[in-house]
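Hi F.,

I've been meaning to write this up properly since the lab meeting, where we talked about keeping a consistent format for the predictions we share between groups. The idea is simple: the sequence comes first, exactly as it goes in, then the structure tokens exactly as they come out, then a line or two of notes. No screenshots and no reformatting. I'm using this chain as the first example so we have something concrete to point to.
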Amino acid sequence: MPPSPNAPCAAGLPLEALARVYAERVRLNPGARALTATMRAHGAHTLLVSGGFAYFTTRVSEDAGFEEQQGNRLLDDGKFLTGKVAEPILGREAKLRALEEGVVRFGLALSDTLAVGDGANDLDMIKRAGLGVAYHAKPVVAAAAKTSIAHGDGGGRRQNQHRAWRPYRFALSSRLPSHGNSAAVTGSFTIRAWAPADTEELGEVFRRSVREVASKDYRQAQIEAWVQAPGEITVWAERMKNRTTFVAEQNGSLIGFIQYEPPDHIDMTYVHPERQRMGVASALLAALENNARERGVKLLNVEASVTSRPFFERHGYIVLTPQIVQARGQDFLNYRMAKRLP
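Output, unedited:
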């Protein structure tokens, strides 16, 4: 949207009209949340800079998962818009300046940057960035960009990229190479089948593992939504009963568990934060895979968190697709992964 020093057509509009426009007219492109979440997971910093109005860019930024936003601020008298826009006006130069300031702020080279835009006021930014992308852009912008996207995924795959959350579809574990395939005793801990008396203690393992291990990869609001997901202890117990669960026990205390949901899904993998780097997750996974082989399972699937993805990759699981799942109002990036059992 081009910069607007004044917006006389908006003069006299009640402030609630902006909320109505946003609710009724603004829609994110399919895959927008998945894109920003994937970038953040790989260390990128995301910034939305628009010549449009900050009322909308703020909300688009929050909904899409950008870390920062800049937009032009409409002035009001407390109840109605005045038709004026606050200085300075953000336009073509502001977009380029935001890119260059980001390079300095984060200690980057321009070759480390990516800029996406569709209009003439994006041209300087697109040309300056290490990778400039014209997205459904005007011909002059597409001709100047290093990369152009003219077609997006608005069809069937959208449902795979953003769908309602199925509880506990996160796997979290220590990041260690395998310590063998023993499913009985490994080092100083024992792997055994779950018993009903284990349920409450495993809930504490789950909560501490999420809060103290996954917090480096997810925001605090996401962590709190995650730990609340299992619900009451009775729900947790019922879930354990209806799945095949293996636990790791050390000196009478539970230090980890893994859960298998027939016919082929690894549902939960958690290790106590004070028992990381002991091969606990590897032993639990070996026990589960051995059990799956005995059942005749040929392929195992898991929806791995950002934290646990490297662990599963080391154990032979391959990424099928990244996806965004939802829990208690929060979007989470995780990875659908699979492994063919020998």
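Notes:
The two ends are 55 Å apart (CA to CA).
The chain is about 35% helix and 25% strand.

If this format works for you, I'll send the rest the same way.

G.
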